[in-house]
Design goal:
Radius of gyration: 37 Å
Strand content: 25-35%
Largest sheet: 8 strands, antiparallel
Order of helices and strands: HHHEEEEEEEEEEEEHEE
Number of strands: 14
Distance between the termini: 51 Å
Shape: elongated
Oligomer: single chain
Number of domains: 2
């Protein structure tokens, strides 16, 4: 493209110089002057029509070609300098957060009844692998008839499920792969009628333990090579008043919904 544009400029400049037999500024060229009467090299009387000003159509064409050439070169430079950034932006990880109550809840004995709630993070197919993916608690707000919290839970990260003994808070995600994060759990023997948020590190003040009630949770989904997104979900814990087998109906969480900003 650059060679072609340069050729257009040169051709335009040649046309500009040769138009009407003139040099720059409309001065008659040597070839035109040699045909003027009285010139040492004159062979015959010049036709007055041969002495003319520049052809402005050619001038406009040459200027337009020059502008086009400069524009083309600038676009090429921009494309060369930013091609890597454009490619990376096109394939940056796209993470989504969801919850399926059928596969993202777990009731088990250890040896007492336990009930876990999970959320699942997934990387979109065809994108780059997401690195250091984490899920962070941003805010907890009681809703409905739930009593206000004296101290809100701290802003900390949820643990990755079934990885390194629930001791890590970050994980890498290749495209089209999902990983679960533990959000909350109830241990019949240890939780003392409350629901515990699976945050790390644990709060020494026990602010990560919620009494029965309904709470709106805001979480941030982050990665080192992707933009952070914010999601809202509703956690409900009705307490334990009957057989432990009823826990799945008394501790629930809704499918997260993406929100544009933290409110």
């Amino acid at each position: 493209m650059i060679h072609k544009t340069a050729g257009i400029i040169i051709a335009g400049l040649i046309n500009l110089r040769s138009a009407g037999g003139t040099d720059w500024g409309g001065i008659p060229s040597r070839r035109a002057c040699s045909s003027l009467p009285g010139h040492p090299n004159a062979e015959e009387v010049a036709d007055p029509m041969l002495i003319s000003g520049p052809n402005w159509a050619d001038v406009v064409q040459a200027v337009g070609a020059a502008i086009s050439a400069i524009t083309s070169i600038a676009l090429v430079i921009v494309a060369i300098n930013f091609r890597d950034e454009v490619r990376l932006a096109r394939k940056r990880p796209e993470l989504t957060l969801w919850h399926n109550p059928v596969v993202d809840t777990m009731v088990f004995r250890d040896p007492h009844w336990n009930y876990d709630l999970y959320m699942r993070v997934e990387n979109k197919p065809g994108q780059d692998s997401a690195t250091s993916v984490g899920l962070e608690l941003v805010d907890v707000r009681p809703c409905g008839d739930t009593a206000p919290l004296v101290h809100r839970p701290p802003r900390r990260s949820f643990v990755v499920a079934e990885l390194h003994g629930y001791e890590t808070t970050e994980v890498d995600l290749p495209p089209n792969i999902s990983r679960r994060f533990l959000i909350a759990y109830h241990d019949v023997r240890k939780s003392e009628g409350s629901v515990e948020l699976a945050l790390k590190p644990r709060a020494q003040s026990r602010r990560d333990i919620l009494p029965p009630g309904t709470y709106d949770l805001t979480v941030a989904l982050t990665a080192s090579n992707a933009d952070a997104t914010y999601w809202k979900t509703r956690l409900t814990f009705l307490g334990v008043s009957g057989p432990e087998e009823e826990l799945p109906t008394r501790l629930t969480i809704t499918s997260p919904v993406r929100t544009s900003a933290v409110q």
